[in-house]
């Protein structure tokens, strides 16, 4: 190639390069498409998960009320017993002897009273004719009154001895589940102190004892005053029991007691709920989680947990503003409600909260929001051609 021709080719290439550089810049990438949901305020149950411990609704110690030797245990340990059912038998022979002695004393007192009454009646008949002195009459009537009092005392002794004899058959004071025996046959009980024989717990219903910090209670009362919370009335605050293995008991309990004094050691207030236990599933002494429903949270938002992020500042959600740009909103989360966070502050009604595609967006940058239904429809539409192509092949 000659030199003029080579120069002409180089000049043409240079012009082509300059023309390419002078073309307008390519169009910018479209904003990323993300799934959004409109924040909608609603009233949701005001719940707190608290740790508590179950205890019997009634517990009674069965003790020996009279001295004696235990002859037999009648009940089966760990079984359900009825009120009045015989549990232990104490040797009744000494008590029977005491009753017989008291009955003999009563018979003697009654005989003495009969003799004194005859003598007093005779003195009262003879007194008007002056056959006996006034002093003799007074003595006869005094002896009659003393004999009558002795009869009453003897009757009381007989009744006391009969009651003690009845205590030889130790019965259940309440219905419930009887524990293991604390003494064995042949043991001498009731000497001085009332000896503990066993314990009965009523467990067809149980108490759930738990506590809540006084500051949290004060916060709830203040929120009620501000109209953000509506606390339930007496008898309407419910409790649901969650066992250590995560199982939730179907039967719902009722909060029936709230202490009026703050424990100075813990700064908390004691609370108690009554929980049904007809099938005896729950056992006293178990530590459980109590989901207490105390009322309603007014104007709260339920936001999917994946849409809430956290950093060192606070929890926050990414929202598409009216100008189409992504903005951060710091929020206050109360607790998890199923797959959602309960947000009590930081959002406004109608906010377009990004729930999917957070990795695509950046604060201050534009983004296009679509609903979950629109995203699903677009995905289905894209899948149809691919399926058709696969069948054609």
UniProtKB/TrEMBL annotation:
Top-level lineage group: Bacteria
Multidrug resistance protein MdtA-like alpha-helical hairpin domain boundaries: 99-168
Signal peptide range: 1-22
InterPro entries in alphabetical order: MdtA-like_b-barrel, MdtA-like_BSH, MdtA-like_C, MdtA-like_HH, RND_pump_MFP
Domain Multidrug resistance protein MdtA-like beta-barrel: residue ranges: 207-294
Bilayer topology term: Lipid-anchor
Alphabetized UniProt keyword annotations: Signal
Family of the protein in this entry: Belongs to the membrane fusion protein (MFP) (TC 8.A.1) family.
NCBIfam families from the UniProt entry: RND_mfp
PANTHER family assigned to the protein according to its UniProt record, in alphabetical order: ACRA/E-RELATED COMPONENT OF DRUG EFFLUX TRANSPORTER, MULTIDRUG EFFLUX PUMP SUBUNIT ACRA-RELATED
Stated name of the protein: Efflux transporter periplasmic adaptor subunit
Species for this entry: Pseudoxanthomonas japonensis
């Amino acid at each position: 190639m000659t030199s003029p021709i080579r120069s002409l080719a180089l000049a043409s290439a240079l012009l082509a390069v300059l023309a390419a550089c002078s073309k307008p810049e390519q169009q910018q990438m479209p904003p990323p498409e993300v799934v959004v949901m409109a924040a909608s305020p609603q009233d949701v149950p005001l719940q707190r998960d608290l740790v508590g411990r179950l205890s019997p609704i009634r517990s009674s110690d069965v003790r020996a009320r009279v001295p004696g030797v235990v002859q037999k245990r009648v009940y089966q340990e760990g079984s359900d017993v009825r009120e009045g059912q015989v549990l232990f038998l104490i040797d009744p022979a000494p008590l029977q002897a005491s009753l017989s002695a008291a009955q003999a004393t009563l018979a003697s007192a009654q005989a003495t009273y009969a003799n004194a009454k005859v003598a007093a009646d005779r003195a009262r008949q003879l007194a008007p004719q002056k056959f006996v002195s006034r002093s003799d009459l007074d003595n006869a009537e005094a002896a009659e009154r003393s004999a009558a009092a002795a009869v009453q005392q003897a009757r009381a002794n007989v009744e006391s001895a009969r009651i003690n004899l009845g205590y030889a058959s130790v019965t259940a004071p309440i219905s419930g589940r009887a524990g293991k025996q604390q003494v064995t046959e042949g043991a001498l009980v009731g000497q001085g102190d009332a000896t503990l024989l066993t314990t009965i717990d009523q467990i067809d219903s149980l108490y759930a004892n738990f506590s809540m910090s006084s500051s949290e209670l004060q916060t709830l009362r203040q929120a009620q005053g501000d109209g953000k919370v509506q606390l339930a009335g007496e008898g309407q605050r419910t409790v649901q029991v969650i066992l250590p293995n995560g199982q939730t008991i179907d039967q719902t309990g009722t909060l029936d007691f709230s202490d009026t004094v703050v424990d100075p050691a813990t700064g908390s207030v004691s609370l108690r709920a009554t929980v049904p236990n007809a099938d005896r599933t729950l056992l006293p002494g178990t530590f459980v989680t109590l989901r207490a429903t105390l009322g309603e949270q007014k104007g709260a938002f339920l936001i999917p947990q994946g849409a809430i992020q956290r950093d060192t500042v606070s929890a926050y959600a990414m929202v598409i503003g009216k100008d189409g740009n992504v903005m951060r909103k710091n929020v206050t989360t109360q607790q998890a409600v199923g797959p959602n966070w309960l947000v009590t502050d930081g959002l406004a009604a109608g906010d377009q909260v990004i729930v999917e595609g957070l990795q695509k967006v950046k604060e201050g940058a534009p983004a296009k929001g679509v609903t979950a239904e629109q995203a699903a429809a677009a995905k289905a539409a894209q899948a149809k051609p691919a399926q058709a192509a696969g069948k054609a092949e």
